Structures are given as C-alpha cells and as structure tokens.
Amino acid sequence: MSAIRIWKRPPFIKRAWLRWSLTIGGSLFLLVAIGTMDVNWQRVAAGVPRAERFISSFFPPDFASKSSDIWEGIFESLWMTVVSTVIGILLSIPIGLGAARNLAPRPIYLFFRGVLAVSRTFPEIIIALFAVKLFGFGPFAGIIALSIGSIGFYGKLLAEDIEDMDPVQAEAVKSTGSSWLQWLNYSVQPQVTPRMIGLAMYRFDINFRESAVLGIVGAGGIGATLLTTFDRYEFSSSASILLIIIGIVMAVEYSSGYIRKWVQ
Amino acid sequence: MPNEQQAKIKIWQRRDRGHQLTIWACQFIGVAIFVYCWQLVSDNTIWMFVTDAPHQANDMFERMLPPKWEYMDVLWRPIWDTVIIATLGTLMAVVFAFPIAFLAARNTTPSTAFVRPFALFIIVSSRSINSLLWALMLVTILGPGVFAGVLAIGFRSIGFCAKLLYEAIEEIDETQVEAVTATGAKGSQVLNYGIVPQILPAFAGISVFRWDINIRESAILGLVGAGGIGLQLSSSIDTVSWTQVSLILLVILVTVILSEWVSAKIRHSII
C-alpha cells in the first residue's frame, strides 16, 4: 500500500465479471464480423473517382435539366404523404382507443394491441413491396404502405398517452352523468390532443421521408425519379433531388415545432 | 368562462366564438387539402386492380403456404450479414456522433456562430436521407455488398445518435460541471469528469435503441443490393417463389422481435 491513494472513478458497469466478459465478447464479435465481411477493395478503389464526381456534382446542383420530372415526383410524394397521414391517423383513433388499457375491456385491448404489433413489425418498404403486387404499380400502393405504418406508430402512442392521462378529470366528467361519447369528448380528448397534434406533424415528417424511398419498389413518389438518375449516373440531378428532400424535411420539422408550441 | 346568451339561458360552451371559428376554419382548410389530394390519388390509380386485390391477396397467401423450410440453409449467411451491417453501422455512427454531439450542444460547442450550425447541418442532412437512399448512393459508388450497407446504416445513424445525444448534453446538471471547474480542472478534464459521466447512460441507451432500429433497416438494404437478407427477399419475389418469401418474412419477424427484446433488456438494466 503506497502512502498516497489516488481516486479513480468507478467503472460504468460495476460487476467486474460482466464488464470483462462484455469487453472480450464484444471484441471477439468485432473481429469475426470484420473477418467475415468480404470487401472487394478493388471495386471500392474504382469507386473513388465516381465518388469525387458525385460530390462535385453538388456544387452547383443541377435543378434545371430534369426540373419537370423532379417537381412532379416531389409533388406526388407530398400528396401521398398528406393522404396517407390523414387515413392512418383516422384509422388509428379507434384502434388506439381500443388498445388503451383503461378504456377497453381485456379481450378488445389484447386484440387491438395485436393489430398494432403486427402493423409495426414490418418496415413500410416491405409492405409496399406486397402492396405493389396486389394493387399494381403507382402511388396507391405507397399510400397503403404508409397508412399501415402510420397506424402502428400513431395508434401505439395514442394508446400509451390515454393510459397516462389524469384519471381524476375523467372521473369528474363521468360523475356529471355524461354519456360515453361525451365523456370521451370532454375528458379524454382534451388531455391527449396537444401531444397528439405534435405527433401527427412528426408522423407527417416520417411519411414524407419514407415516401421518398417507396419509388424504389415502384410505389410512387420521388424515389422512382431518384433511382432513374442514379441508374443513368446523372449525379447532378440526384444531388438536386436530395437537396430538395433535405429542404422539405427541414421545413416540415421547423413548422411542426412551431405548430406544437402554438397548440400547447 | 366563455358563455353565450341563448334564449335568456346561459349555456356553457367549451370555447368562445372567435376561437371556435378559427378551429372550424382550420378544419375546413384541412378537409379541402385532403379532398384535393384524394382527387389526385384517384386520378393516378387504376381502380380495377384495387377491386381485384382481395382475390389476388387470397391467391398470394395460398401460394405462400407452407414455408419452404429447407431454404433456411441458404439464409444463415444473409442473416449473419444483416446483423453485421446493423452492428458495425451502429458502431461507426456512434464513433462519429459522439464528437459531433459535443460540437452541436449549446453548452459545449466551441463557437455558436460557426461550429454549431455546421454540426447541425451534418445532423439534419444525415437524418433527412433514408438509409435506403444512402445505400442506393453508396452501391452506385462502391459497388454492391455488405460494405456499402455498413456505410449506409452508419451515415443514416450519425444524425439520429448525435441529435439525441446533444439534447442530452444540453439537459445536464450544470452544478456538477461547476463543481469540477472549481477544483481547477482543465477544459478536457471538465468534459471527462463533469459532463461525460452524466450522459454515459443516455449514450448507451441511444446506441442500443439505434441498433434495434438498424436491424430492421439492414433487413431491407438488400433491395438495392447492399447486402443482408433483403437481397434474398427481392430475388425470391422476382422469381415468384412465394414459399421462400414467407420463410424470409418469418425470419425477419423473429430477428426483429429478438433484437427488440435484447435492446429492451439492455436499456432496462441501464436505466
């Protein structure tokens, strides 16, 4: 024991055996993972000049040469987003009510929780893949996929928000002798509305981002235009599409923050 | 309380007239936009296909059963690739997100005027572009394969992790930082002993949460050729081998549920 004892900060994981086994296991996994990942370095090296060309095409991006295609695609993405967000939210309101433990009887609760779990499991793009097979190519398939995704997202959050609400207010309204609908309208709805409007904006944002990729499987939106520009190596047009997407997402995000503040 | 005189009896109303009219106006505009968009949808849809869909769905479902179990032998490798893509991608994102988050947080950034907007721009552009679009770009540049997938997942996750992390940094307890500063610590020591211990749990939670999301995302990257199980999915659909498709869907379902369970367990033990 030396004369001076120096303080050392406690480790993040307190149990020593767990810390060591996690470190060793983690590094082993990493080694194996990197070892089994076969990278074709020649192909990667060949990509460097192409990457340079791609990056240089952002300065300046070419908005002009395919502008009618681009704007048509962006517009399609936007109205797909509007329709699918509205349909998804309208459908998720009854589902969310059914999936709230404090509103619904047990069997109904379990059934709607199941519905939500199923619609949340698969990514929108896989649903779109099947929707394209069923409904044919075009934006309708994309709308179906986005709506299902919205139901899973919004329904779950709505149900959780209803479960977290203040039961005192609900009881007070009930004690006035209100009907079930009145009770829902005057005690449950005012408590969840502000947060739910914010989440609706957030879901709109997500749906727009997703609608930008649905075109890859043929479900409409700007993705199809983007895919074509990549396939033809027209990087300057792809750069302009990406910049427009970033711009719209930023605009939606800022305005949703503003609307949320205004509502609350 | 907004009241309204109605036939000499005062009836309670939830809102006063102006407020109610504003709400009605907003609702009217909303409905009008929706109707207009629905019109566009209807113009772009061939309704014959839609009405035929239930029949088609039934047909597809029948051809999917039973799943072709022996195809599993082929699938182990893609499953492994999917996990690798998600894990290495998350790791890469975490490594880059950590410094970016410090540059973006209002209380730790070296300069609010120059560095912070730049860091925020990196975060926004990484978040706005879907991982599938990143993959599409990287496959065009680097060629198909797992490597492009790892980079795609990494680029997409940087913004996500950095955003949540910088919000956590902005919410830290300043008194602890002050206490460490009062001992005469240097800037790097303040960072190391005053700030990092406070955000470490959030950091670990965010990484695991993103890893869980990335498992889902890497399962579909194969659709554009960036490795993982999506490659088998798209080729099975293209060759209409529906029994393979149903098996792949089952595998994705199980993987997603497992990863969600693991991530929930880890986050639970951290918090």
Structure description:
The complex is a heterodimer of chains A (264) and B (271). Chain A is mostly helical. Chain A has one domain: MetI-like (MetI-like fold), CATH 1.10.3720. Chain A has helices spanning 16-36, 41-56, 67-98, 106-121, 124-135, 139-163, 167-175, 180-214, 222-231, 235-263. Chain A starts with 15 loop residues before the first helix and ends with a helix. Chain B is mainly alpha-helical. Helices cover 77% and strands 3% of the residues of chain B. The mean pLDDT of chain B is 84. In chain B, a hairpin with a 2-residue loop joins β1 and β2 (9-12). Classes of the chains: A mainly alpha (264), B mainly alpha (271). Chains A and B meet through α1, α2, α3, α5 and α6 of A and α1, α2, α3, α4 and α5 of B.
Task: Produce the secondary structure layout.
The complex is a heterodimer of chains A (264) and B (271).
Chain A: H1 16-36, H2 41-56, H3 67-98, H4 106-121, H5 124-135, H6 139-163, H7 167-175, H8 180-214, H9 222-231, H10 235-263
Chain B: E1 3-6, E2 9-12, H1 17-43, H2 47-64, H3 72-104, H4 115-128, H5 131-142, H6 146-170, H7 174-182, H8 187-220, H9 230-238, H10 242-270
Antiparallel strand pairs in B: 1-2
